[in-house]
Design goal:
By secondary structure, the protein is α+β, with helices and mostly antiparallel strands. The protein has helices at residues 3-14, 60-68, 73-78, 88-95; strands spanning 23-28, 32-37, 44-46, 54-58, 82-86.
Amino acid sequence: MTLEEIVQAIQARVQQAGDLRGIVKFVIDGTKVVHVDATQRPVQITTEDKPADCTIRLSGDTFQDLISGKGSAMTAFMFGKIKVEGNMGIAMAISRIL
């Protein structure tokens, strides 16, 4: 997926997550960054590498599986396909929309 496609996929899901409060950064394939600031309304999504409460690292293939419904965030985390740094509460909230 391109960075633009990733941003669109995240944006479509995050806007539905009204209970998400915090800042999360997705790092996909080690180089693509999507920064989601859900402390603001509307939620602000950029491709800037800024500090976050929670950083989620995963591959593009894993992200594609999550977005398409082929995979579960919890299962991917348990198998080490997703690495989480920082606030686990935010990670759990974001897992509900992936």
